[in-house]
TrEMBL record:
This is Methyltransferase domain-containing protein. Keywords: Methyltransferase, Transferase. Residues 6-52 form the Methyltransferase type domain. It comes from the Bacteria. It comes from Macrococcus carouselicus. GO terms for molecular function: S-adenosylmethionine-dependent methyltransferase activity. The keyword NADP does not apply. Gene3D superfamilies: Vaccinia Virus protein VP39. Pfam families: Methyltransf_11. GO terms for biological process: methylation.
Length: 68
């Protein structure tokens, strides 16, 4: 597998190589989420599935993540 935990982009895979891609809580760290979306589209098969999660803005908007 190419890349590492520190290397979130670029994705260097063949076109239409994967049926399923998953990303968990990573997009909000990327400076260009639209560009990464285009790359994901290229490496998924035509009927592929992209599953991702992001942190909800309410959780980080105030600056403190200490919910009571």
């Amino acid at each position: 597998m190419q890349g590492s935990i520190e290397d979130l982009e670029p994705l260097n895979f063949k076109h239409h190589e994967f049926d399923v891609l998953m990303s968990s809580f990573a997009f909000h760290y990327l400076p260009d989420s639209e560009g990464i979306g285009e790359e994901v589209k290229e490496i998924l098969t035509i009927s592929g599935t992209f599953i991702f999660s992001i942190e909800h803005p309410v959780y980080t908007a105030y600056g403190s993540q200490d919910w009571i």
